[in-house]
Amino acid sequence: MxxxxxxPLWMLRDREYRGWVFRYRRELERNEQLSVDQIQALQWExxxxxxxxxxxxxxxxxRRFDDMGLHPSAIHTPEDWRRIPIxxxxxxxxxLEDLVATNCxxxxxxxxxxxxxxxTPMAFYQDNEHLACHQANKLRFRAWAGFEMGDKIALLWxxxxxxxxxxxxxxxxxxxIRRERWLNTFNVTxxxxxxxxxxxxxxxxxxxxxxxxxxxxxxxxxxxxxxxRIHPAAVETSADKLYDFQRQVIEDVFQCPVFDFYGSRExxxxxxxxEAHTGLHVFSDIVHLEVxxxxxxxVPGEMGEVIVTDLHNFAMPLIRYQNGDxxxxxxxxxxxxxxxxxxxxxxxxxxxxxxTPNGQYVHGxxxxxxxxxxxxxxRYQAYQPSLNEVRITIESSGDLSEDxxxxxxxxxxxHLGPGIEVSMQVVDAIPLTPTGKHRYVISEVLLPFxxxxx
Length: 454
Ligand SMILES: [Zn+2]
Fold this sequence. Notes:
By secondary structure, the chain is an alpha/beta fold.
């Protein structure tokens, strides 16, 4: 009970931020009650505002629109909207400073980076109001799964920079105020999983938040060890692709439903499952999400490229941003009655774990974090042909020094431990998979106790 009272006060950084989160939370919850037409009208209003703002205050968009003789006042319909050029990750990499609005306070911006599910590292900026809006959205989504602020939450997560390993005080705050228990999936061994399982059996978390593949790995392990006695109210999976066979095992072992969430570093929340589990609802009051097939809107059931516009990042607008993922829309309406459209499939977050001779399972996201903010890396791929070898290929934008390469290689070797050969090679181009998708971590080594179809 105490945590439910204190946590909201502790988790928020300052009064201004706190105010925004609460305000957005109320606003977003009200939006759930709107009709489809009302949501679309609201979304269109925001898109127009964003476009006007981008034209007036963001050098990159001003230049781009002027070059093609396009003025925001000429955008009236969805067809007009599609005349706006796609913003690629390469555009962002090459024009980072010109994408920041000239009328925002640079001192209040957070610089963030992504290794990206496509293996293309990229930096970007966000302001506090934007972060607060997405925080509020996360709380709205978790409420669909029955989570309330203050509930005990177990995390199977790998982001070293997200993991609270700081001071003793900070660790106590995480344990007792935020009520979290973490298993770092960048460094998992059977012993660590066993210890974590016993801890959770005693502690009884209400909610489990995990990389999809980590939740599956852990669930498979629990089942094999006869430790399947952890029963939260829900498991939230995100960050990488959740396959149906994984969902089955996770739901079976934890005896609760899985709620899949689709977000990324650059746009924290894009879609998530409700309690009816008919697909992932696009949070269309905070993002505008298009699915394009050969440049035209994909028909329901057809796979296409995700093009997303963040309606709340005025500091660095991402307008028609192609994040590299693929998705499928659905024309079904969900029995929950929420006005948000559905995605039935999201591809492109496929990532393998690397197994090491010393018995660790290293989540593929480790590599994505390793390449965060490294200048000169355009794309990369880690390939493990056998237990004792990992080959990393890098597409460079030209200014990647030999020193940087050696430093990266040393970091990989230190993390993976002895008995595994790590090579690093700069190449002209990394081949795509047959679906046109860049897979950034591929392992041919099957994990024990985990079966993987195909
Ligand atoms: Zn629904």
